[in-house]
Amino acid sequence: MKKDILEKGAILQRDRETYAIAPHIPGGITDTATLRKICDVADRYGVKELKLTSAQRIALMGVKEDDLDAIWRDLQEKPGAAIGLCVRSVKICPGTTWCKRAVQDSVALGLKIDALYHAMELPNKMKMGISGCMLSCAEVTVKDIGVMGTPKGWRVYVGGNAGARPQLAELLTDGLATDDEVLALIDRIIGWYRNSGSELRLGKAIEQAGFERFRAEVLGG
Ligand code: SF4
């Protein structure tokens, strides 16, 4: 019986025969040349449908197993981490790059976070979101780690998820003034998670340890 093929980023589809694959497109930000390349490869291999995913990717649907290697070779892109126990996605809103409501540069910070953490192996899957203002278009309060821009800086939320047992994230800290402060905090959260001994999603791991203990350990006080 066929299964997902992790090393090829290939997710078995409902027909139990074909696969979906999705190149990594950090923040969902791309250009026309990349889009043309994806379309050309899709045409070359008879891919009939492309799906814009909730993780800001473009998935090629209904790919034949025999074509997977050739498609990745032609795409010359890394697979998006759509499966496995790792940082699956870093969702980024347009922020001050484009959005008139933005108060923080979510694209600059989000791309740094994506470069550091996308696909990093962890005890369980993890999703992140970075929003440039409190309207939260990157849905930061249902992410394992969510970063929200405010007029004073950045807020960091932890432990959210939008799965079968949805959980709103807890506010961990407010008013971080710089990207470096956010990156340092995320580094401590990831380190804490790796050493927690838990194989649950971050929110449940924090619940097990106790939120106040977690907060003291990652904020240092
Ligand atoms: S979260 Fe705010 S900055 Fe980001 S797209 Fe939405 S309104 Fe714009």
From TrEMBL:
Keywords, comma-separated and alphabetical: 4Fe-4S, Heme, Iron, Iron-sulfur, Metal-binding, Oxidoreductase
Domain of life where this protein originates: Bacteria
Annotated InterPro entries: NasD-like, NiRdtase/SiRdtase_haem-b_fer, Nit/Sulf_reduc_fer-like_dom_sf, NO2/SO3_Rdtase_4Fe4S_dom, NO2/SO3_Rdtase_4Fe4S_sf, NO2/SO3_Rdtase_FeS/sirohaem_BS, Sulphite_reductase_assimil
PANTHER family: NITRITE REDUCTASE (NADH) LARGE SUBUNIT (PTHR43809)
GO molecular function: 4 iron, 4 sulfur cluster binding; heme binding; metal ion binding; oxidoreductase activity
PROSITE patterns to which the protein is assigned, alphabetical: NIR_SIR
Organism: Geobacter pickeringii
Domain named Nitrite/sulphite reductase 4Fe-4S: residues: 86-218
Residue stretches making up the Nitrite/Sulfite reductase ferredoxin-like domain: 12-77
Name of the protein described by the UniProt record: Sulfite reductase
